[in-house]
Amino acid sequence: xxRALNRxxxxxxxxxxxxxxxxxxxxxxxxxxVGAGFTGLWTAYYLARAEPGLRIAVCEAEAAGFGAxxxxxGWCSALFPKSSASLAAFSNRDGALSQHRAMRxxxxxxxxxVGEEGIDAxxxxxxxxxxxxxPAQLARARAEVEEARSWGRDDDDFRLLDAADAREVLxxxxxxxxxxxxxxxxxxxxxxxxxxxxxxxxxGVQLFEQTPVLSIGPGRLVTPDGVVRADxxxxxxxxxxxxxxxxxxxxVPIYSLVIATEPLDPGLWDRIGLRRRETFxxxxxxxxxxxxxxxxxxxxxxxxxxxxxxxxxxxxxxxxERVFARLRDALVELxxxxxxxxxxxxxxxxxxxxxxxxxxxxxxxxxxxxWAGGYVGDGVSTTxxxxxxxxxxxxxxxxxxVRLPWVGHHSPRWEPEPxxxxxxxxxxRAMAVADLEERLTSRPSRxxxxxxxFVS
Length: 456
Ligand SMILES: Cc1cc2nc3c(=O)[nH]c(=O)nc-3n(C[C@H](O)[C@H](O)[C@H](O)COP(=O)(O)OP(=O)(O)OC[C@H]3O[C@@H](n4cnc5c(N)ncnc54)[C@H](O)[C@@H]3O)c2cc1C
Description:
- The protein is an alpha/beta fold.
- Among the domains are: 128-181, no CATH class; 418-456.
- The chain has helices at residues 9-12, 38-50, 84-90, 93-116, 135-150, 163-169, 189-202, 266-272, 321-334, 379-394, 419-441, 446-451; strands at 27-34, 56-59, 75-77, 128-132, 159-162, 177-181, 184-186, 206-208, 215-217, 220-223, 226-235, 252-261, 279-282, 288-292, 298-302, 343-353, 360-364, 369-373.
- α2 (38-50) packs parallel to α7, α2 runs parallel beside α10 and α3 packs across α4 (93-116).
- Flavin-adenine dinucleotide (FAD) is lined by residues 34-40, 59-62, 66-69, 71-75, 77, 212-213, 236-240, 243-244, 256, 258, 289, 301, 348-351, 373, 375, 377-380, 383.
């Protein structure tokens, strides 16, 4: 592996951020938001646009975009972590369909705001290709398309590709076919987060950086240098929620790690494809995800880093040389033409996983407490939907958004340790075993079938 920098590619290719001062003294506002990732920023953005006189404060422990929002794989997609069938099970068919429609619209909405606010987030709406690279993966691709059809989703939404069409998009090894959806854009996530932070400040939102919230109570946030009183407080802390007193078992922080290559020669790109900057993955169980960046590199990430006992998080867990090496091997196995390509950046971050894998958004009006999160790995556009939904809930607007099935959904709490550690790591291990089983047998994995009810 080439020289591994400790900074993400996104940091190295963003204009430098000017730090904003911390909160210094007590403050009274209408809405106080904890966390300046996409959830907190979209919420502030839509509230400030809807009611310009509203007093809004955002308290961020580090800097805007410090968390997953500034580090992710940059898929702005219509993916939602819970399947339509599972959503319908706790709402109904129409509810599940509305959620899917709202997710598709969110990709357009992000594009719209990026344009209106002049945010140079390298947005390219090329869609997503998911390759099938062994017979078991091809069977899964076919089943996914059939399932989509049963929900009325047509070719314009999600379609099967034969081997030649799939290779035309991405000429990877062992391609037997794949699926394609147009509902995804490749973005530069840190540029989007910082651009949004600038936009909310322009709209009059008070954004305090280096301001950790020590406790969240009804109508009240406590920080080291002041108390913020508000009619409504919004928790937008995703993978970091575990650090807030009383919320340790709400979301499990799972680490996802990422590598970036040097810029590739045009000749190499002619062979590989991704001409419209399509985001890419394959049908394996232990997720991988990639994008062609605006400066012609490949950013490639995946799960597989272990869960840490007690839901511990820390900067040390952003790096795991074994996982980086496995990612590089997986990338070269997928695209053998990259065998001599340098890896210039390696980084990682934590995302938030609820016990039932269902993201949710809600407001407890009586206590003046709102939340959104649990996006697993699908937060880039889901946070946008969360921000618009929180706007409508807080401003008591009766819209279609507040009737979507994820609104007010309460996921069960995770088990206490050591069960949590055993269960989460066994699940991660099972995914890797299932991929190996499918490569060796060419049949859909039995291990995966056992684990599937817990992750769909
Ligand atoms: C490596 C990686 C790759 C991913 N790839 C994709 C992808 O390609 N597509 C996709 O859709 N999703 C992806 N995700 C998930 C996506 O990035 C997240 O779901 C999304 O960014 C969550 O946004 P958020 O604002 O809720 O949380 P975050 O961005 O994590 O923001 C939370 C913020 O809260 C702050 N905070 C926490 N506790 C406190 C406190 N007590 N006081 C004050 N501030 C606090 C943190 O510092 C942080 O800035 C990925 C995630 C990771 C880690």
